[in-house]
């Protein structure tokens, strides 16, 4: 549990810090880092890829539902450090975006990949994706992570 909380808190701090820094440094600007990356501010009132844009109820209830379902599923297993890290990333990312959506009604995105023109994200989004990839890798390649408690 300490590992989950540590990764969660680190993810929250990094996400909040980068969102604050982007809101100060990128207002009215776009910073191009070549063909690979651009930094620009966008406000996303939807969820992943703009789904449910303008629907604040869905933006609040769906992440909570995912977290509750994940908790109900994962509590059946003895979590290894690998799965604890993955869960901390997912929870930290969900919580970072959830709190911002709760306070502002939208999420600040600032990381844009020109080769993925439909995708603008933030650190919380990257943490969620990384955590899900780690959980998928765990399911596929680490059967020891899925021993029942």
Would you summarize the structure shown here?
Helices cover 58% and strands 12% of the residues.
Q: What features would you describe in this structure?
A:
The structure is a single chain. With 149 residues, this protein is of the alpha+beta class. It has a domain of 91 residues. The chain contains four helices and four strands. A four-stranded antiparallel beta sheet has the order 1-2-3-4. Helix 3 runs antiparallel to helix 4. The longest helix is centred in the first third of the chain and has 24 residues. The chain is globular and about 50 Å long. The model has no long low-confidence stretch (mean pLDDT 89).
């Amino acid at each position: 549990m300490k590992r989950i909380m540590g990764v969660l808190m680190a993810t929250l701090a990094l996400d909040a810090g980068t969102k604050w820094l982007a809101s100060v440094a990128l207002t009215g600007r776009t910073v191009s880092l070549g063909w690979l990356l651009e930094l620009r501010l966008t406000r996303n009132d939807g969820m992943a890829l703009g789904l449910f844009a303008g629907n604040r109820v869905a933006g609040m209830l769906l992440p909570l539902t995912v977290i509750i379902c994940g908790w109900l599923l994962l509590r059946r297993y003895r979590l290894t450090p690998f799965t604890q890290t993955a869960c901390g990333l997912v929870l930290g990312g969900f919580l970072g975006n959830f709190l911002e959506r709760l306070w502002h009604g939208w999420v600040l995105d600032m990381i844009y990949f020109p080769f993925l023109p439909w995708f603008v994200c933030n650190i919380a989004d990257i943490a969620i994706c990384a955590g899900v990839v780690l959980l998928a890798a765990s399911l596929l390649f680490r059967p020891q992570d899925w021993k029942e408690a």
